[in-house]
Amino acid sequence: MKIVLLTGSPHRDGTTSVLAEQFAAGAQAKGHDVFRFDAAFKNTHPCLGCDVCGMNGSCVHKDDIENELIMRLVDADLIALVSPVYYFHITAQLKTVVDRFYARTGRISDKQAVLLAAAGSDNDLTMRSLRVFYATLCRYMRWQSRGTVLAPGCATKEQIARTAFPKQAYDLGFNL
Length: 176
Description:
alpha/beta, 5-stranded parallel beta sheet
């Protein structure tokens, strides 16, 4: 299986890096091919809504999304979204990538997906909007969700290391 792992954290070694690394390790142990795109450290530009792409063509932006990522998404069997939760949602860095799906919407549809996220807060509202966003994205893109690992109350790498969430991420990747 070809997996594209999209991360949105601006912290190279934070809580979601643990989830991303464990998910990738599990998937690779099962023989899957994993390509990782760390959106926060790439040259990316937001969708302009100009419709030059016509939802099935090149974007006017010739950035890392267009040059390195978009065709890997087209070829992928599964797309993994990995993000810290900032104000009840994925980060702006990852949202920029998701918005750019527009250029190839039809060709990125009908795939499998997973969501991995960590948040400092463990308030019952913390993951609510994220769950709705993911379910809506999966429905719109006709993605089959293969699972989620949502880790509230994990503000630091040390906190998440003391939980079952890293193992859950590994198992999610391994059991694809």
